[in-house]
Structures are given as structure tokens and as C-alpha cells.
Amino acid sequence: MGLLSAAIWMPILVGGVLLALGRDEHAGTVRWFALVGAVASFLVTIPLITGFDLASAAMQYQEKLPWIDRFKVFYHLGVDGISVWFVLLTSFITLVVVIAGWEAITFRVNQYMAALLILSGIMIGVFCALDGLLFYVFFEATLIPMYLVIGVWGGPNRVYAAVKFFLYTLLGSLLMLVAFIYLYNQSGGSFALADWYRVPLSMAAQVWLFFALFAAFSVKVPMWPVHTWLPDAHVEAPTGGSAVLAAIMLKLGAYGFIRFSLPILPDASRDPYVSGFMITLSLIAVVYIGLVALVQADLKKLIAYSSISHMGFVTLGFFIFNAYGVEGALIQMISHGFVSAAMFLCVGVMYDRMHSRMIADYGGVVNTMPKFAALMMLFAMANCGLPATSGFVGEFMVILGAMQFNFWVAFLAATTLIFGAAYTLWMYKRVIFGAIANDHVAELEDINGRETLVLGCLAVAVLAFGLYPAPLTEVMHVSVTDLLKHVAAGKL
Amino acid sequence: MTDLPILLPAYAEILLLGMGSAILLVDLFLPERLRGLTYWLSLATLAACFVLTVEVVRATGGQSAYTFGGMFVADLMANVLKLLTYAAVAVSLVYSRRYLAQRGMLCGEFFVLALFATLGMAVMISANHMLVLYLGLELMSLCLYAMVALNRDSALSTEAAMKYFVLGALASGLLLYGMSMLYGATATLDITQMAQVIATGRANGVVLVFGLVFVVAGLAFKLGVVPFHMWIPDVYHGAPNAMTLFIGAAPKLAAFAMTVRMLVNGLIDLAFDWQQMLMIMAVLSMGIGNLAAIAQTNIKRMLAYSTISHMGFMLLGLLAGVVGGNRLSAPDAYSAAMFYSIVYVLMSLGAFGMVLALSRAGFEAEDLEDYKGLNQRDPWYAFLMLLLMFSLAGVPPTVGFYAKLSVLDAVVKTGQIWLAVVAVIFSLIGAFYYLRVVKLMYFDAPQDTAPIESGADVRWLLSANGLAVLILGVMPGGLMALCLVAMQNLYPLAR
After folding, report:
1. A167/B428 CB distance under 8 A
2. ipTM above 0.90, yes or no
3. B72-74 and A73-79: which strand pairing?
4. Cβ separation of B428 and A137 shorter than 8 Å?
5. Apex A427 CA angle, A252 and A396, nearest 5
6. Could you tell me which chain A residue has the CA closest to the CA of B481?
7. Chain B neighbors of A67, CB-CB under 8 A
8. How distant is the Cα of B340 from the closest Cα of chain A, in angstroms?
């Protein structure tokens, strides 16, 4: 068994054991077992990056086994510079979330931990799959554990949010399935991604396929105007669920664009109308959703809208077709993984104490929780893209890329630095600074060792990649250049 | 034709007939305390039939074998479907035992009716002659009517049986009328010869098409697709849960086989005509089945409408076989439909099995509300039901997804992408009500706190059934390949 298989199946296996044997009577054991499983799953992914060949654009750590002969489907895994960091991000965030849910989850702990671990394995599968059907199976399978996480451990309106989340994303995926079957038939009966990259397609077919894939990926990203499920899902999900959703699940959609839409449908993607359409939607997400975030009264909703706005940057970076844009977008995805998870966990820390997500219920938290306020300050700064945090690198590169593409696009994209700072810092000011707003705030206790560990790990990651992003760019560079060359060559 | 002892292909059916009669007699003379013997004898009979059928496959090497003057065929499709029918009936019996015993229906008649119904299904599956087909169909149907009415004191059951009988008889009449027209046009009732006569082009086209319409209507009734679906919700709802399980599982395989025998073996040269009829019925079934299921509060009714939509989806595979007179991709398409039917039966067994497992004396777990908080009452059953529901919805990694995938692949191959899009949109609508069951089980608090009292046998079998949905979902290749080989060896498609 290869490294990638281990990375996928180890958390799933641990989750299965938890489901089968865990009981709420020994929740403590369940937590420790889940932690050991998450740590092991994270350690397994580390050799992927240490042993990564920076000079090669080819898929590395490949595994290929026949799976369904009838459809010539292969269990084909591999990672390149684009996907390898996401594997690490997934296993890291899962570890963090397992620790974060230690006390917050009080009932059916084994099922919660199992759902998170299984979800982690499935999402790693999405990033590693080099076979269309395998990708689809993993992509869809993520819905089941997330549906349960939102629905079982979520807030008061969880059922509505869970069903909306499921049906919304299922609609997109089903259209993608039809597109995949079409590609399968066009490429002479192959689900292999490598074959799909080569199969000639007419412009009309490419445009149709583009919008079928768009249906799946744009919902997942989510892009304006199909983003409406996200605020609901985020608000109702438990803290861990929100963190995973924002940090990794949203990336599945963006990853789909760069792994499928761009290389399989290069001519449609580069078509000025189509790419113009994508850029327009992205800019609307950046500007309009940024403004929407400004007026939110609910902390989680605010961060949810901020996620949509940041993901607008990612799709913008992809569809301006230069190395700065694409690499910047990828770095933004990684960085947003850390920052959004951290922001949701910060809200979780406060929610666990106050049982409120309303900004108005807070004020002056810094007086009672100084350590927490300092850490959250860092994440808030990263969220608005302050230099020296990871949030800056990606946004800056995308803006640079956009500048090469068109001044006005860059101009509009750059407004995010203002809006992002506005909504994040204003929220931070209202929640953290000022006089102590009420008795509940006065009684708050600062974060304990476990919470410090969780937020500290994320803080280190945010700072490290902000100060020294080279490990990210070096790994990506060759693969991104290769991809852009492939897209530029076209298929017509 | 292979050179075999003349009755070998039908050994299993002959045994079934003999044992069915024997059990009827044995049960008459058994003292009350030995009544359990009929149950075990029935299971043993089904097991023996299973083994015999495996032997038939081995003896014929997967080739088609004919007997009774070509009226009875044991090709690979027939043998595979019969094996699964025997298994499905056996599983139904195990699931039903406790339920029936608590309601005083665990009597000899039930087993005899079940075995004769199984015989009817086996005959339908293996028929290569219209009259044999009709004989098998009537044998099965009459047993099923009686089974629905087995609970004599229940007005609901009696009403359901009456509806089933009247509408079923009407459908049989339509089918028979269609067959007689086909006979008039081709001067034969042998399905193989009929196909040959039609292929010569000398048969009267108008009469053929008229006959075809009636035949398709009869088949549609047995499959339960719109607009011949009216009986399904009422019968599923009104019948005792055990009978719903029985009707909802194995007979679907027989109905599928009958459809293939009539339309593919016999009338493939009229594919252009019947494919259009199937298309309308498929789209309507998926639409009405999925939409009406949303409004149900009774899980049996919900699953009844879900059956309608699934049979509609299965028809998509059948109608994608012949493209512009070209039969090259027909084995792919028909094997997709066969795979779909088999998978559906597996899921249906599990879902209705769960209804039975949660029922107890004086309580039928048939309202959706009864599933509230199942995860707290019994996490393992809730998990199995979760797998079954996601499989019915077609979400990977469960096998329901691969069933949908193979059918959609067949449809896309014909170039009718719009049809595939319609199908997935209706699947999306369908996902809603399956999700609702999961929601009730996992998100809501239980209303009913009585212990779940299913026995160990049911627990193990239901676990195997539920996990099969997942395991086949991870490795669907074998069953898919088997269906493909079966269809490649089907008479008009074999090269």
C-alpha cells in the first residue's frame, strides 16, 4: 500500500472502528483514540512533502489498480505540486478539529469523531484521485458525513441547513456526473484524467461541459450567486464542522476547477466570454459579498461571507491565466484553510463560554481573555491580508496577476484589502475591545491549554507561510507552469 | 442447442413444484408444536433450488439450454436471476417469520403460497414461449393476491388484495390480448420463432404494433410504472408488512426478466416502437414517483412511490439498447438495466426488512415518525438504514450510485443527453425524501422508547444486507461483469 492510500484509508479505518466500538459511556477513551488516529493520519502525510520532487510536473506517489473493469475504472492515485499541499492541509485541519471538539461535543462523541475522520479520508481521496469516477465517488461521498455533522451536532436550525447543503451540492454534482459520462464516451471509454486531458473536443461541447462542471464546482466553492447554502451551513454547523467546511470542503470546488475545468476544457475556459463571466462572478463575490459581510450581526455568518469573498479571489486567480494568478490562488486556498479554520475556532471558543454568536452580545473580551484576544488579533489580521501573514501572499499575487491581465480587474480585486480590513477589524473591535459589555463577558475565563495549543498551531502556520512562502511556491511552480502551458495550447 | 439430458435446465423448478406440494401436505398433518418445520423445509427447498441452479450453470457452462421443446430456456440471464430470486425469497422468509408469528399468519398456506409464487417467478424468468410466460405470471400473481389477503380480518388488506386482483387481472388480460395479436401476425407463440418471423419483415406491421402496445401496457403494470402504477401504493400500504416485503423484492426480478423476454428476445426488431413508449413511461414514472413520495407520511407508501421511480429509471436502461437499428451497445444497456433491478431488489429487501425488524406485536413501524431517533435507540440499525437510504438516493460510495451510473452511461451513449439530465434532476428530487428518513433517524429525538426486539437471525441477515450495499458499492465490478456476460449471451444479442 502506498503513502496516498495510507493517507486516505487510515482515518477512514479509525473512523470505522470508532463507529463500531465507541460508546458514550467511555467518551474519554473515544477521544484519545480519535486523537491517536488523527495524529497518525497526519504523520502519514508528512513524507509526501519531504520526499516531493520539486523539479517534476508529473504525478508523484502514483498508485494504479484496476477497480471496475466494466467501465475501465482504475483506483488511480497521485499528487502533483497543485494537490500535495491540500493533502497535508486536510490531515492537519482534521487533527486540529479533533482536539477542538474535545469538550464541545458531549453526546455521541464516537460518531462525531468518526464522521470527521472519515470525512478527512474522503477529502484526501478527492485531492489524490486521478480517475474521473474515483474523483466523483470521493467528491460525493463527502456529503454524507458533513450532512450528519451539521444535522446531529448543529444549532437550532440545523435540519434546514443540512438538507439545503446536501441538495444544493447534489444538484451540481449530478450534472457533473452526466458530463463525466459524456467525457468517458468521448474518450473512447476511459475515466482516466490523463486521457481526458488529451481528448479532442469541439468548442460547443467544451462550453456545455464547462457549465456542467461549473454547476458542481461553483456550488462547492461557493461562487455568487449559488453561495446561499454556505451561510446557513456555517451558522448551524458545530465549530468543528464549520472549520472543516471552510478550510477544506470549499477548496474541493476550487480544486475541481483547476484539475478538471481548466485542463480538460482549455478553449472554453479561455474563451473571453466564459472567462469574463467567471471573472465577473468572482469580482462580485469579492466586492459585493465583502459588503454583505460588513453588515452581519452574527459572527459565524460574517466569517462565512468573508470565506465566500476570499474564495472569489481564488476563482479570479484561476481565470486570468497567468502564473501569478494561479499560484496566488492556490496559496490563497491554503492560507484561507488555516485562517478560516482559525476564525471559526475562535468563534467556537467564545461560543462555548457564552452560547451566543451575536456580535452585540460581546464587547471588551480583551479584558477577561487577553491571550485569546492576542491570538484572534493575528487571525483577524491574516483575514484582512496583512503582510507577514499567509493571507497577504496569496492576495498580493492574485492582484499582481490581475494587474498583468487588466487594470480595472486588479483595481476591483484590490478593494478587498479595504473591505476585508473593514469587516474583520470592525468585528474585532466590537467583540474584543472597549469596556466590558455585560456580566457574562466579565465572567469569561481565558483559553485553557488545549485551546491555546489548537490556536497556537494555526498561528504558527499562518505566520510561517506568511514570512516564508517559498515551500508553497516552490512545490507548485513546475506543476502550475505545466498546467498553463497545457491550457494555452488548447484542444482545437 | 446443447446435448443435455432433456429436463436438466428445469430441475430446480421441478424440485420447487414437488416440495411446494409436499409442504402443503406435510403441514396438514404436523402437530402444532412442529409447525416450525414448514419454515425450515421451505428454506431448505430454496437452498436446494439455489444449489441445483448453480449446477445447471456448471453443466451448461453458461450456454443457453432449452427444454420442453424450446418453451423453457435456461440461459445465463435466467440462471442469474433465478439464483437471486431464490435468495431474495429466502431472505424475505427469514425477515418475515417473527412478524407473521406475532400476528398468527405463520401458517402452512403462507409458505406454500410463497413457494408457488417463487415457482411462478422462475417460470417467467425462463419462459421462451408466450403461453409459458403467461402461465408463470398467473401462478405468481394469484399467489401474491392471496398473500396480500392472508390477514382476513383486516379491511385494509382485503381492500388492497381486491384492488390488486382486479387491476392485475385487467393487466393480464391486456397482456394476453397483445399476445394473441402477435400470434395473429406471426403465427407462432414461441418467442425465438416470433423474433425470426418479425425479422423477415413478412408480418403485418399494423397488427404487430397494436399487439405491442397491449403487451407493453401489461408489462408496465407488472413493473408498476406510470401510467399503470395506481395499484402499487395501495397494495404496498394495505398488505401486511411481510407481504409488502415479498412483493417489493423478488417479483421485480421476474418482471424485469419477463420484460426482457418479450421485448428483447421476441420483439427486438420493433425496438424503435417500444423504446419510445418506454421513454414516456420512464420519464413519467421518475417524475410522479419522486414527487408523490415527498408527500407521504407512511414509509411503506413512500417506498412504494420510490419503487415506481426506480422502475422508471431501470426502463432508461432498456430503452437505450438499440440506437438507429444498431444493436452493438445493446448488451451494455440491458446489463445496466439488469444490474439496476438486482441492486434495487437488494435495497428494497433491506428497507422493508428494516420495517419488519422494527415492528413488534401490536405495532407496525410504518409511519415515518416511528423512525425518529433510531440512532439513539439502536445505532447499528440506524447506520444500516442510512446506508440503504443513501443507496436508494444513489449517493456514492453505495451501490445505488453504480446502478444509476451504468444506466446513465447507456443513455448518454445513445446521444440523448437531455434524458440523462432529466433523470438526474428527478434523482435529486428523490434524494430529498430519502434524506428525510436519515434526518428522522439521526437528527430527531426518539418518540418511541420500546426496545427493538428483532432476533439474532434477522439482525445478522439485515446487517449483511445493509453492508452488501456498501461492499458492492466499493467493489461493484464483479456483479456488473456478470450482468454484462449474461446479456451478451442473450439469444438475439449473442454473436
Report:
1. yes
2. no
3. unpaired
4. no
5. 50
6. A70
7. 475, 477
8. 14
Enclosing H/E stretch for B222: helix B205-223
Q: Which amino acid is at B330?
A: A
* pLDDT recorded at residue B2: 53
Cell (9 digits) for B126: 425462463
CB–CB contact B442 A175 (8 Å): no
**pLDDT tens digits, chain A, 492 residues: what are they?**
788 888 899 999 999 888 888 777 788 888 888 889 899 989 998 888 888 888 888 888 888 888 888 888 899 999 988 888 999 999 999 999 998 888 888 888 888 889 999 999 999 999 999 999 999 999 999 998 999 888 888 878 888 888 888 888 888 888 899 999 999 988 888 888 888 988 888 888 889 999 999 999 999 888 888 888 888 888 888 888 899 988 899 999 999 999 998 889 888 888 889 889 999 999 998 889 888 988 888 888 899 999 998 898 899 999 988 888 898 899 989 999 999 999 999 888 888 888 888 888 888 888 888 888 888 888 998 888 888 888 888 888 888 888 888 888 888 888 888 888 888 988 888 888 888 878 887 888 888 888 888 889 889 988 888 888 888 888 888 888 888 888 888 877
Beta bridge partners, A268, equal: none
Task: Please report, to the nearest 10 degrees, the dihedral formed by the alpha carbons of residues B87, B90, B96, B98 taken in order.
Answer: -130
For chain A, what are the domain ranges? 3-489
Put simply, the answer to whether A162 touches B443 (Cβ < 8 Å) is: yes
Question: Between chains, do B409 and A184 touch, taking CB under 8 Å as contact?
Answer: yes
* CB-based burial label for B73 (10 Å; 0-12, 13-18, 19+): buried
Per-state percent for chain B, helix, strand, coil, to nearest 5: 75, 5, 20
Distance from CA of B102 to the nearest CA of A (A): 31
**Eight-class DSSP state of A82:** T
How far apart CA A101 and CA A242 sit, in angstroms, is 12
In angstroms, the Cα distances linking B284 to A284, B221, B224 are 40, 14, 12
Question: Which candidate in A177, A180, A185, A219 is best for mutational testing of the B interface (most B CBs within 10 A)?
Answer: A177
pLDDT band for B269, please (50, 70, 90 cuts). Answer: confident
Angstrom distance (rounded) from CA B402 to CA B410: 12
Which residues on chain A place their C-beta less than 8 Å from a C-beta of chain B? 19, 67-71, 108, 111, 133, 136-137, 140-141, 143-144, 147-148, 151-152, 158-159, 162-163, 166-167, 170-171, 174-175, 177-178, 181-182, 184-185
Residue B405 touches chain A, beta carbons under 8 Å = yes
Of A69, A140, A178, the CB nearest to B396: A140
A131 secondary structure, DSSP code:
B
Burial of B170 (0-12, 13-18, 19+ CB in 10 A): middle
Reduce the DSSP state of residue B378 to 3 states and report it: coil
B442, B463, B485: best mutation site toward chain A, by most A Cβ within 10 Å? B442
d(CA B442, CA A349): 26
